[in-house]
Each structure stands twice: as C-alpha cells, then as structure tokens.
Amino acid sequence: MFLDITQNLFRQSPEDNSVQLSCGLAVTDVDNDGQLEIIVAGSVGPNLVLKYNQAENQLENLAVDDPTSPYYALRDVGGNTIDVCACDIDGDGREEIYFLSPSQVYGAKLFKFRNGRYEDILADEVNQQLASRLAGISVTCIDRNGTGKYAIYLPNYSRGNYSTPFLIEMDESRSDVANGVVVLRNVVQEAGIAKLTGGRGVTAGPILSKDGRSDLFCNSEHGPNFLFKNNGNGTFTDVAAESGISDAYENGGRGVMLTDFDGNGKLDIVYGNCNGPHKIFLQTADDEGRPKFRNIATEEFAEPSSIRTVVAADFNNDGSLEVLMNNFAYRGPAPNRLYQILRSVNGQDPTIKEMNIGKALEPYSQGTGCAVVDLNGDGVLEVILSHGRSSTKTLSIFSLPPEEKMSERGWLRVRVLTHQGAPARGAKVTLHCKRGRQTRAIDTGSGYLCQIEPVAHFGLDHDIPVKLEVLWPDTKFKVINVEASNVNSEMLVTHPG
Fold first, then answer.
1. Mapping DSSP to helix (H, G, I), strand (E, B) and coil, where does residue 309 land?
2. Which residues pair with 386 in a beta bridge?
3. What is the pLDDT of residues 218-259, one digit of tens each?
4. Which of the pair, 1 or 104, is modelled with greater confidence?
5. Environment class of residue 141 by beta-carbon count within 10 Å: exposed (0-12), middle (13-18) or buried (19+)?
6. Which tens digits make up the pLDDT trace of 426-481?
7. Pairing relation of β-strands 436-441 and 428-433?
8. Which of 414, 416, 436, 438 lies closest to 427 in space, CA to CA?
9. DSSP letter at 200?
10. Do 351 and 314 touch, CB atoms closer than 8 A?
C-alpha cells in the first residue's frame, strides 16, 4: 500500500534527516503560520522540527544549530528525549511543547514561545522545585476543567517499580501569562488520579462523557488498565472494571488510540500489548444504558508483537479506518502491520482484514514512533516512522503511490480550535453522510510516545457529507451544514464562544 518517499523529501537537505536515535513524534504548528510541523524527539542527538516547503516539496529542519534562531532551544542536544506532546498550557492560543525524558538526570523540558523564541519554562526559578521531581515514561494532554488550558499527564515508573503519576497544569493564582510568567503545579491528588501506575500507553478524550468533557485512559504495562471518567468538576473516577476494559490479565501496554470503528458515534479504543494480544474494544451499552466495552480483535489482529505505536486513520480515503501497528525489531524480525477495519452496514461487528503494507513493512527496523499528517494538503495522509534505541537510523516517510492518490475518492479535513485559538485537543468531531456517520477525536497523545496531527481526517470514498457536529471539552456544541464545495478541502471550526 505505502510507497517510501523519504529520499524525495530530503533530497536537497539530507542533513535534516540525520542518522541518530529518535523516539517520539508530535505534530503541531511550531512557527504559528497555520501549517503543521513534525517534531522528532532525539533520544541521542538533537530534536528536530521538520517543516514542509511546498514550493520545493522538501522537509526542512527549523531547529538549526544557530543560537540566534527562535527554535534553537528546541534542539536540546543531549536531552535524552523519548516522548513529545504539544498543547496550550497557558491559554494564550499557542501550543507549548513538552519533551519527556525518562531520567531526572537530563530532566523534562516545557517550551513556551516568549521573548521572540522558545524558552524552557521548567527552567524558570518558580518551576525548578517541581522540575527536579518530574520523570515519566509517556505523556498526553487533557483539558480537565474545560477552560482551553491543558494539563500534562505523565504515567510514570522507574526501574520496574510502580510510581505515582504527575498531572501538571498552570497555577492561575501565581501566573502572569501576559508577561510570560507561567507557574506550574502538580494536581494529580486534587484530580483523584494518583493511582500507582506502570503504564506507557495513555490518551484522553470524551470516551464516556456525553457532554464532551475529557476522560483519561491508561493502557497499563503491569496490572489493570485505568479509565478515569471526568466527574465534571475537574476530578475523575476510575470505571475501567465496571466498563469491561480493565484487561487485568494482560500487560505490556503501549500504543493506544481513540476512534469510532463501527459508526455508532461512541469512541472505541484500540491498543497494543508489547508481546501480548492486541485489542480493539468497541464501546456499546448494557440493558440499562451503562457503557460497556467488548474486544472484537480477531486472532490474526491480536497476534502478539513487539508493538510500540498504534495509529488508526483512513489512509486511502475509502471511508473505512485502517490500523497501523509500528513494531520494534529486537529479537529477530518484527514487521509493521496494517489492518482494514471495515464498517458493517447491518449492525454486525466490523470486518478486520490484514492489508499489504508495502514499503512500510520494515521488518528489521527498531521502530520507536509513528505519526500521521497531511504534509502537502492533497488530502492523503503521510506516515512518519522514527527509529532508535540501540541502532541509529534516519526517519522513514511513506505515502500512497501516485496512482492511488489520483483516485476519485473524496475527503474532508476538520481543524477545531479552542476559544483561545489553539487546537482543541480532545474535541469530538462527527461527520454525517448519506451512508452513515464517522466520528473522530482530536488527538491529545496517542502514546506510546507519539501525538498525531490535531485534525479530524475523514475519507469519504464516494459518499456525500451532510453536516458536521463538534463537541468541545468545555461542553460547547456546534452543528455546521456541509456543502458540496467543502469536499476535498480543510474546514476550520472556531469555538462558538
């Protein structure tokens, strides 16, 4: 299915795709021009900020080795970064960038654009005490209070021992955002999610909350999963066991993502267990209307592998989702895998079928991260794979072959903004078409280690869209009629105020 376009994109500037150990990936608008960039976490080597040059059809690194560059600090050479996540912490309409290190020796970084450049606000004196304690193994963001000001959630353990997670957000009473002062605090106890974890996979969104408030799902590596339902007041209650998704007898939790596989408008959960059975949990309800999850993974899909990241997206715009499994080869070959999740039209479970992944197979690569983004605005998603740990390698970038891109399948992309103007991560977007509906969640972090583009991407095939429904984490709701002229374009949905 996929064609390797790496060499084409770095043809003129191969140094922007240097051979190094890379881990997590995130997609955000780093330079605030409305175009999305790819952030690459360099576990040994500099972080990268890759921007697509439309005129040259090239990816160029913004984080150059020049102290006068506004993006210079993002390089953080020697930062031992494994994970990266972007979200608007202080509500100024521009996303901050969190780089996670598993070691307190190197320390985490939280970069804010101020004074004309990116600066690490965890290095500010007011945050140094907190920064000295921070460590984690994965990261996501969550707007727990529906204010458009996000918190960073860090599941955490060290050397195989369980440890309390962190939930880091801005202290409103002590901050002065207009003057660049952002004071951070740990609110994990206040939020009621201070459960001991040994987890790597984590994501947030309106999984159970019908009003749009963000819930939190933790795919644990040791012990049962957590599904923290938002109580509507900034606190959470773990309902994983009663919802049927605790999966208490599996371990090795890694990549996880929210989406709607069966078109019922409820968010389902797909995740990988490292060297354990992979799962697709459909969300339904019992006879009394209480949410229940049911695993529909086939034996073929569930087959254990050394999984890292899981991404669900419609790569060929046929109206059905595909699931890409990014595997890590460390005990012999571990090829990446791709499955089509075909929606049923008669109420039965979706059909799961393995697809030819093409050049993205990479059976011997140490794949550490995967993200998707539409680089050139043609309505077809590109796949970015990072590699690292014990063997250095460049990034790999894949897209559909030209003959498939030229198909007549339609598409629609939707960007949703907070009332401050930043990506509304955790928002729920439902597209109603003549043949049914599709639902997406704006990604908060599809761990393990990665965060895909903050866009709801819909493949239409030949279906006709009718209306769009958007539900924000602050419970605001908006309905938009979709016209024929919107097909094969990107819609920008602003907050209703």
1. strand
2. 369
3. 998 878 999 999 999 999 999 999 999 999 887 788 999 999
4. 1
5. buried
6. 999 999 999 999 999 999 997 688 999 999 999 999 999 999 999 999 999 999 99
7. antiparallel
8. 416
9. E
10. no
CA-wise closest residue to 98 among 90, 108, 106: 108
Residue ranges with strand state E in 29-160? 37-44, 48-53, 58-61, 83-87, 96-100, 109-114, 117-120, 140-142, 151-154, 157-158
Averaged pLDDT for residues 258-276: 95
Tell me which residue of 402, 266, 279 sits closest to 339, measured CA to CA: 279
Q: Which whole number is the average pLDDT over 336-340?
A: 97
Alpha carbons 85 and 25: distance in angstroms, whole number: 8
Per-residue confidence band for 183, with pLDDT thresholds at 50, 70 and 90: very high
Q: Is the pLDDT of residue 160 over 60?
A: no
Q: Say if CB 62 and CB 30 are below 8 A apart.
A: yes
Contacts of 423 (CB under 8 A, 6+ apart): 28, 29, 87, 88, 95, 415, 416, 417, 442, 454
347 residue type, one letter: G
323-353 burial, b for 16+ CB within 10 Å, e for fewer? bbbbbbbeeeebbbbbbbbbbeeeeeebebe
Tell me which DSSP letter residue 487 carries.
T
Q: Which of 3, 113, 14 is nearest to 60 (CA)?
A: 14
- The backbone torsions φ and ψ at residue 402, rounded to the nearest 5 degrees and listed phi first, read -55, -40
The answer to whether 69 and 60 have CB atoms below 8 angstroms apart is no
Q: How far apart are CA 416 and CA 493, in angstroms?
A: 5
Measured from the Cβ of residue 377, the count of other Cβ atoms closer than 10 Å reads 12
Q: How far apart are CA 408 and CA 421, in angstroms?
A: 33
pLDDT in tens, 34-86: 999 999 999 888 999 999 999 999 999 999 999 999 999 999 988 788 899 99
Which two three-digit tokens encode residue 98? 């969190």
Lowest pLDDT segment from 99-113, 220-234, 305-319, 423-437: 99-113
Instruction: Give the residue carrying structure tokens 């987890």.
Output: 199
* Rama region for 12: left / alpha / beta (φ>0; ψ in -120 to 50; rest): alpha
CB crowding 24-50: b at 16 or more within 10 Å, else e:
bbbbbbbeeeeebbbbbbbbbbbbbbb
157 — pLDDT class (breaks 50, 70, 90): low
DSSP 8-class letter at 57: T
- In the three-class reduction of DSSP (H, G, I as helix; E, B as strand; rest coil), residue 16 is classed as helix
Strands, E assignment, 305-435: 307-313, 321-327, 337-342, 351-354, 367-373, 382-387, 396-399, 410-416, 428-433
